[in-house]
Amino acid sequence: MSRSLAFVLLGIFTAHQVFGAGSPKGVHIAFAGVNSITISFYTTLDTGEDNLPWASIADKNFTGSTTKSKSRYHHDVIVSDLEPGEVYEYITGVGSASSEPFTFHMIDNKSTKFKTAFVGDMGVNNSQATIDLLTKNRDQYAWVHHVGDVSYADDFDVKIEPSSGDGYDDVYDLFQDELEKLAASTPYMVSPENHDVTCRVTSDLGCPEQQRNFSAFRERWRMPSIESGSSTVEHHNVWYSYRIGNAHFVSIDTESDFPNAPTKPSTKIGGGAGGGFGDQLGWLKNDLKEANEDESVDFIVAMGHRVFYSSSITDWPLLAVKHVKEAFEPIFHEYNVDLYVCGHKHFYERGKPSFEDKEAEGGTTQIINGAGGCNEGVQGEGKGKAHHLIAKGNYESTGYGELEVDGKEMTWRYILSESGSVDDEIVIKSRR
C-alpha cells in the first residue's frame, strides 16, 4: 500500500525560479525512534527566518529546524507516527522551494526478518560502483549504515581530492548529492571517525569553527542520539543506538571521548581537536546492559570505525589500536555483542570470534568493511600479528556488507561492487 503525498505549492513560480540555491539538495532520511523518520537536506542560500523547512507526506505536514555551518544551511524535519510496513511518498522543502517526490518503506520495528547493508570508508572517488549497486538494491535493504569516514572531504587539504570544486563543503555537497537516490529512499545511518573530525586531514589550521570538532558531520546528519538517551543535545549524533525487531544496533565513536582516544580537545596534529561530547563508555555500558538483559533481543550488533584486530598494524596515533581495543572490547564481551562491523582499513577482513587476542567461544566477531571506495584506494594485506584471527580477506576489490536477520539466525555476506557477487558468507546463530 502506498500513502500519497498531499501538498499544494503556493504561488505561481516554481521552486527554482523563486530560490535557485534555496531548493533542497542531498535529501536523505534516517531513523528517529520507533515509527519515526528524520528527513534532512541542505541548501546553499539563506531562505529567511520566516521560511521553515517542511515535509509533506500523506495527509500530514511537518515543520523542522535549520542550522548553519559556514555557507551551508542544514535542515531536519522529524516525521512521526508512521505506520509500520507502509510505503510513503513525500516531498520536502523550505518556503515554496520543494524537492522532487521520493518514497520510502517504513520498517516494522517488531519484525524479526529483515536485511540491511553496511558500507565503510566511502567518498566521492572510486565509489561509483558501490553507490550504484547499493542504489540498485535499495529495495532489498531496510537501511544502510556507513561505518565512518564519510565523504573524505578533508582530503581536499592534501590535494588528493580531484572532485572537490572549491573546497571542503563542495566535496561534502557532491557526496550527499551522489547518495540522494539511495539515501532519500533508504534510511542512511552514519558513524563518525578520523576523516570526519575537521576540514583538514592534517590539522585544524585554516579550518573555520563551523568545520572543526565533527561539526560538518553532526550538522549534515541527524542521528537518533536523543531518542536513544545518549544525549539531550540536538546534533550530538556521534554515538547512539536503535532497535529493529529482535536485534539491537549500537553505533560508537572510536575517535573521541574515551581514555587515550585518538582525537582529544587538545589534539593539534593528525586531524585536529575533537571530542568533549560526554561519557560515551558510561552510556554504552547502560545501553548494552539493557539490551543484553532483554529476552526479546536475539542479537547485538555494534558499528564503529577503528579496528581491534587486523593484518595491518600501521595506524595513527601509533597506539590507537591498543587504546580502542582496551576501551571497547571488554564492554562488548561483558554484554555479549555478537558482531562488530568497522572500517578504517581499506579492505575486507572477517575475523573469528575473539577476545583478548585469542579465538574465543562467545567472543565478538569483528568484520572490517572498509572498502566502499575512496581517494586512497583499496589497501593491500598487512604483515601484522593478527593473521591467526582472520578467517577471510579481500584486498583487491571494493564492496559492501549485507546482513540478513531471520529469526534466530543472522547471515553476513560481503558483496563485490563491480559484479554484485557474494565473496564471503557466514551464519551467526543466536546464543540467547
Notes on the structure:
- This protein has 6 helices and 27 strands.
- Helix 5 (280-293) runs parallel beside helix 6.
- The chain has 432 residues and is an alpha/beta fold.
- The longest helix is centred in the middle third of the chain and has 16 residues, at 168-183.
- The two termini are 35 Å apart.
- The chain folds into 2 domains: 1-106, Immunoglobulin-like; 109-429, Metallo-dependent phosphatases (Purple Acid Phosphatase, chain A, domain 2), CATH 3.60.21.
- It has helices at 15-18, 128-136, 168-183, 215-220, 280-293, 320-334, and strands spanning 2-3, 25-31, 37-43, 53-57, 60-63, 65-69, 72-79, 87-94, 97-98, 102-105, 113-119, 122-123, 144-146, 150-151, 188-190, 240-244, 247-251, 299-303, 339-342, 348-351, 354-355, 358-359, 365-369, 390-394, 399-406, 409-416, 422-429.
Low-pLDDT segments, ≥5 res: 1-19
Number of helices: 6
Helical fraction equals 10-25%
Largest sheet: 7 strands, mixed
CATH superfamily of the largest domain: Metallo-dependent phosphatases
- Structural class by helix and strand composition: alpha/beta
In total, the number of domains comes to 2
- The amount of beta strand, in percent, is 25-35%
Number of strands: 27
Please state the CA-atom Rg, rounded to the nearest Å. 21 Å
- Straight-line distance between termini: 35 Å
Strand order of the largest sheet: 16-17-18-19-23-20-24
* CATH topology (fold) name of the largest domain: Purple Acid Phosphatase, chain A, domain 2
CATH class of the largest domain: Alpha Beta
Tell me, what's the shape?
A: globular
CATH architecture level-2 label of the largest domain: 4-Layer Sandwich
Mean pLDDT, to the nearest integer, reads 91
